[in-house]
Amino acid sequence: MCPKAPGLERPPDVARSTNRWYERRSSEVTARTDSCMSEIEIVFSVNESAEGGYEARALGYSIFTQADTLEELRKMVRDAVRCHFEDGAKPSVICLHWVKDEVFSA
Questions:
Q1: Low-confidence ranges of the chain (pLDDT < 50)
Q2: Single pTM value for the model
Q3: Could you give all domains of the chain from N- to C-terminal order, each with its CATH number?
C-alpha cells in the first residue's frame, strides 16, 4: 500500500468544495515532496467519474487518464506514465490516492 503524501488529509468539514481545496493543497504538498519523490514515486489522485468509471490525475505533472474499471485504470495510468517520461527518468512506483466525496444532510 502506498503511503499518503503528508498534508493531503481532507478536513472533516469540507464537502463539495473538495476539488478546489484538494487542487490547492496537492500543489503545496507536491512542492514540498518533489525532492523526495522525484524519480522514485508519482502520485495520482483518483476520483469516480460523474459519467461512470474513474479518472486519475497526476499531482505535479500534466498527466490525466480515465477508464471504466479499476483494472483498466491501472493499465491506463501505467501507460500514461510510460508515455510522459523519457526512458531513464520515469518513476519506479505509481501511487493511486483514492478521493471519495461523501455528502450528507446536517
A1: 1-17, 31-38
A2: 0.60
A3: 42-106 (3.30.2390)
